[in-house]
Amino acid sequence: MCVFSPHNVLRDPPFSRLDLISCRNLFIYFGAEFQARVLPLFHFALKPSGILFLGTSENVSQHPDLFAALDKKNRMYRRRDGVVMPLKLPRAAASTATTIVPLVQGEPGASLSGLRNAVEARVMEHFSPAHVLVNREGDILFYSARTGKYLEAAAGLPSRQLLVLARRGLRLGLGSALREALETGKRTERDNLAFDVDGHSQAVDLVVEPFAQDD
Fold first, then answer.
1. Structural element, H or E, at residue 49
2. How far is the C-alpha of 194 from the C-alpha of 204, rounded, in Å?
3. What does residue 145 show for φ and ψ, rounded to 5 degrees?
4. 43, 58, 124, 170: most buried, per Cβ within 10 A?
């Protein structure tokens, strides 16, 4: 029922629609600049009224407009909704560069460009296909939402290998598509791959596309 994955809160794309973020005793190792950068990312990642749980020596004093104290003694905070906040989102999982994206959530007078960004982010969140980012060795670096339909934890030691986690029926087509994309450097497709989910057969169209950035 759990997926474990390394995640760099300063460099990796943020998760979204989370009920709870438990980030205890990490901020104490950050300077003020990094704390100020991460708190808006947590605000973005949480659902409306989502909960942020910090360590006993940490707080949200740099951004009191983003979170309200739910239990100040135990460092539990509730996400404030309807906040306009410039957000620094990483351009890619392997990049340290960031781009500023206006995050707009229903505030009157918001800029048209900010509203467009918010709408595009919402549409991507709800309608983009499930996807993962892997390296050349097939290790998963990033999961999107809704990948559980296609991936499942294998018995034995934990693994981040995509082909190990892929459901039965997907592995053969996925493996050949990955090899072809790696060898040609071009987008590769496999249509109508049949696989089982809870005893029911389903079909999926698979796309493997090289991500040309550094290595």
1. strand 46-54
2. 7
3. -70, 160
4. 43
The pTM of this model reads 0.45
CB atoms within 10 A of CB 26: 14
Residues 6 or more apart in contact with residue 67 via CB below 8 angstroms? 39, 43, 52, 60, 77, 78, 79, 80
27 pLDDT more than 60:
yes
- Give pLDDT, residue 6: 83
> Residue 173's pLDDT is what?
93
Q: CA 137, CA 118: separation in Å to the nearest integer?
A: 34
- φ/ψ bin of 199: left (φ > 0), alpha (ψ from -120 to 50), beta (otherwise): left
- pLDDT (tens digit per residue) in 44-54: 889 999 999 99
Q: Could you tell me if 91 and 97 are in contact, meaning their C-beta atoms sit under 8 angstroms apart?
A: yes
